[in-house]
Amino acid sequence: MSWGGGAVSPEVHAEWARRVVAEYRSAAAAQELALWLLQVGASPDLVRVAQRTAGEELDHAELSAEVLAAAGGMPPGPVHRATLALGRSGGPLEHDVLRVGVELYCVGETVAVPLFRRMLEGATVPIVRRVLTRILADEARHRRFGWELLTALLGGPDGAELRGVLAAALPGIRARVEAAYGGGSAPVTAEARGWGLLSGAAYEEELRRTTQRWYRPRFGAEGLGW
Ligand SMILES: [Fe+2]
Ligand SMILES: [Fe+2]
């Protein structure tokens, strides 16, 4: 399909194909985390939010595939199965629940909210606006889930031990999110902006703001550095 009189550019296809896969992986991660939460005896409320999150991420994958198709892009190939499982560290399952919960939700979903908001602000294509509006609403809930999970884990009977586990894990988590979103300067065309893409500089700016507004104060309140 063409938009505005011309074919949609390959960078738009590539980005929405990447998002289909990323959302599908998020669905698998939330599904597995929900099972882990059941296995460690987490509160039913937290388990249900994780289960609901898995369904919402699957919706995001389908919706992203709709955008990709509207742009005239080819569907991505099969997702590498190894990337659809959360790795176990070999330690207690509670440690992995904390590590994964913090990296995916406190860190990943917290920066995702302003990123999706910014994508929506620049989006002009109707289907892109519709899909980003839905995703943005869900991601704000996923962000809240992360911080509620962290509070529950650190406030529980294993809190002191888990705080130490998190202190050791945070530098690696920080390095991964900065590698993913920081240091970018790649520009984006007006057409790509209309299809919901962001420049590298925009990713970097939102990560910097999220670090100041969320990561430093929230982890700092738990006695943890970022
Ligand atoms: Fe999502
Ligand atoms: Fe999410």
Protein model, in words:
The protein is mostly helical and about 230 residues long. It has a single domain (about 10-85, about 90-220), classed as Ferritin (Up-down Bundle), CATH 1.20.1260. Helices cover about 75% and strands about 0% of the residues. The chain has seven helices and two strands, in the order E-E-H-H-H-H-H-H-H. It has a two-stranded antiparallel sheet with strand order 1-2. The longest helix is centred in the N-terminal third of the chain and has 30 residues, at about 10-40. The protein is globular. The model has no long low-confidence stretch (mean pLDDT about 95). One fe (ii) ion (FE2) binds near residues 26, 57, 109, 139 and 142. One fe (ii) ion binds near residues 26, 57 and 135.
Topology:
Layout: E1 2-3, E2 6-7, H1 10-39, H2 44-70, H3 93-122, H4 126-154, H5 159-181, H6 190-194, H7 200-221
One fe (ii) ion (FE2) binds at residues 23, 26, 57, 60, 135.
Would you kindly provide a brief summary of this structure?
With 226 residues, the protein is an all-alpha fold. The chain is 73% helix and 2% strand. The structure holds fe (ii) ion (FE2) (2 copies).
Question: What are its keywords?
Answer:
Ferritin; 73% helix; two-stranded antiparallel ribbon; 226 residues; 2 strands; mainly alpha; single chain
Number of domains in the coordinates? 1
Radius of gyration: 18 Å
Strand arrangement, major sheet: 1-2
| Percentage of β-strand residues | under 5%
| CATH superfamily caption | Ferritin, core subunit, four-helix bundle
Number of helical segments with 4 or more residues: 7
Taken from the alpha-carbon principal axes, the silhouette is globular
Order of helices and strands: EEHHHHHHH
CATH fold label: Ferritin
Helix content, binned percent: over 70%
